[in-house]
Amino acid sequence: MMGESLPLENYQRVGRFILLTLFIFFGHVASAQSDLQVSGTILDSSGQPLPGVNIVIKGTSNGTVSALDGKYSLNVPADAILVFSFVGFSSHSIDILTW
């Protein structure tokens, strides 16, 4: 309802998701012509794989979803901004040029 605060647990979840996205690029970024292959593993705050996270190139419909083991791989333009989203969490964007 309007005016009600979200339980502390919801804020903790959002905070954990943001922290997770900071550790997303455990994989490597390899050059392939003008595109890059970005890959990594998405983990939760306890180090467990997080399946089902949507990874989309901002401004497009091109993307992927993390697998059961939390791994993903995506070919992106060199100036891409990736948007990570997961049901129940706030989305988080990462500019791969400044990562």
What does this structure look like?
The protein has 99 residues and is α+β, with helices and mostly antiparallel strands. Mean pLDDT is 77; it is low at 25-33. Helix content is 15%, strand content 34%. It has one helix spanning 8-22; strands at 29-32, 35-41, 54-57, 63-65, 71-77, 81-85, 92-95. The strands form 2 sheets. Strands 4-3-6-7 form a 4-stranded antiparallel sheet, with helices on one face. The protein is globular, with a radius of gyration of 14 Å. It has one domain (8-95): Immunoglobulin-like (Sandwich).
Biggest sheet layout = 4 strands, antiparallel
Order of helices and strands: HEEEEEEE
The count of helical stretches stands at 1
Q: What is the mean pLDDT?
A: 77
Main-sheet strand order equals 4-3-6-7
Derived structural class? alpha+beta
Named CATH architecture: Sandwich
What's the number of domains?
A: 1
Tell me roughly what share of residues is in helical segments. Answer: 10-25%
Give a count of the beta strands, DSSP E runs of length 2 or more.
7
CATH class: Mainly Beta
Q: First CA to last CA: what distance?
A: 38 Å
Report the radius of gyration as a whole number of Å: 14 Å
What fold name goes in the CATH topology slot? Immunoglobulin-like
**Beta strand %:** 25-35%
Low-confidence spans: 25-33
Inertia-based shape: globular
